[in-house]
Structures are given as structure tokens and as C-alpha cells.
Amino acid sequence: MLTTSPRFSSSWRVGALLSLAAALLLGGCASTPASAPPSASVAQQDYLIGPGDNISINVWRNPEVSQSVPVRPDGKITAPLVEDLEASGKTPTQLARDIERALSKYIQQPVVTVIVTGFTGTYGEQIRVIGQAAKPQALPYRRDMSLMDVLIAVGGVTEFAAGNRAAIVRTVDGKQQKFVVRLNDLIKEGDISANVPMRPGDVLIIPESFF
């Protein structure tokens, strides 16, 4: 019967493990393009009201001063007994407390609830899509939003788009960084590895094809 020396058997096992580890490492690198944005988690926070939002102000037991109002471009609101109150950059709860303080001059111990009914968000919380999108626009950022979600919201790209030359411009630690994304691979080829996470404040630029 043929026997194998312990030294040979041990060396063979080590070599096989090293080969397997190398294969796994190379496979993992191939699935993530070097130009993709980093997928670090985004710190979650409460929604901040922004210009263009619509809010519903409900004052308990005082329907005459309860009203739905828009947030003006200057970030302020005007409601019954409340004039030029800053709303932009505040959470609904913070704005409700501010309205209570304003109404306390006229109503004893007012109880206010603020509900956001139309979402736009502050500019720093928006995602802007420019260039050869079917419907270029600014979108309110939503938790766990991905590149695919953004493309669905803007109706995809035009026939003139150079999808694989698109880029995300992102501010990281006060500095702007640019990451190439592969829209054609994602839309036309169904390559899910081209779907990357978005962050508040991202700008997606979709250039026009040269031919």
C-alpha cells in the first residue's frame, strides 16, 4: 500500500489553503470596481424641513388656527397668529415647539402638532440629478437610497446618455470627490454590482455621448 509522508501531507494542505484564499480574494476584488463610491453607512437623523415642503399645523382644540402651509423659498412660514417663523432646517417636533411659543401670546398652553405632507428637504439632504436623465431634478434623500432608486425616480436616462461615464460628486470631510458609476451596466446589462449607495447631498452627473 502506498503511504504519504506527514511532511508531504502537511505541505499539500497548506498549499491548498493558500490557493483557495487567493482565489477568494481575487473573486472579491473583481466584483467591486475600484471607481465605485465607498459604501460606508450613513448616520441616520430625523427629517429636516426644507423650502418647498408642505406642512400641516394642528393646534389642539383650536381649529381656527390649524392650517396647511408651504415653506417659502426663504425657509419661513406664515400661519394664523404666526408670521415669518423660520422652519427650514428644523425637525417637525422642533417647529411645533416654536409655534407653541409664538401662539402662547394669544392661546393659553397651546398644543401643536406639525406633520410634513409634501417632502423636499433641505438642500444638503437632497440628491440632484443633472445631464442626460429623462427627468433631471432634485430628489429628497430617503434612508438606504441607492443609485437604482434614483434612476427609477428620474425615469432612467435618455438615448443620448453616456451611462458608463456618469459620475457622483460627493462632499467628504469638506472636500468634493468624484466617483465614476456604470449606469449602462446597471440598466442594460442588469449588473447589480453597479448599484451603489447614495448619500445626502450627492450630485449625479450624466454626460452626453459623443456619438
Largest sheet: 5 strands, mixed
CATH first level of the largest domain: Alpha Beta
SSE succession: HEEEEHEEEHEEHE
> Could you name the CATH topology of the largest domain?
Outer membrane lipoprotein wza fold like
What is the second-level CATH architecture of the largest domain? Roll
**SS content category:** alpha+beta
Q: For the residues shown, what is the average pLDDT?
A: 85
Q: Assign an overall shape.
A: elongated
| Total count of helical runs of at least 4 residues | 4
Please give a structural write-up.
The protein folds into 2 domains: 54-118, wza like fold (2-Layer Sandwich), CATH 3.30.1950.10; 123-206, Outer membrane lipoprotein wza domain like (Outer membrane lipoprotein wza fold like). It has 4 helices and 10 strands. The chain has helices at residues 6-30, 92-103, 147-153, 183-187; strands at 54-59, 67-70, 76-79, 82-86, 112-118, 126-131, 137-140, 166-172, 175-181, 203-206. The termini are far apart. The model is unreliable at 1-34 (pLDDT under 50).
How do the helices and strands line up, and which of them pair or pack?
Layout: H1 6-30, E1 54-59, E2 67-70, E3 76-79, E4 82-86, H2 92-103, E5 112-118, E6 126-131, E7 137-140, H3 147-153, E8 166-172, E9 175-181, H4 183-187, E10 203-206
Throw out a few tags for this protein.
single chain, 211 residues, alpha+beta, wza like fold, Outer membrane lipoprotein wza fold like, 2 domains, five-stranded mixed beta sheet, three-stranded antiparallel beta sheet, 4 helices, elongated, disordered N terminus
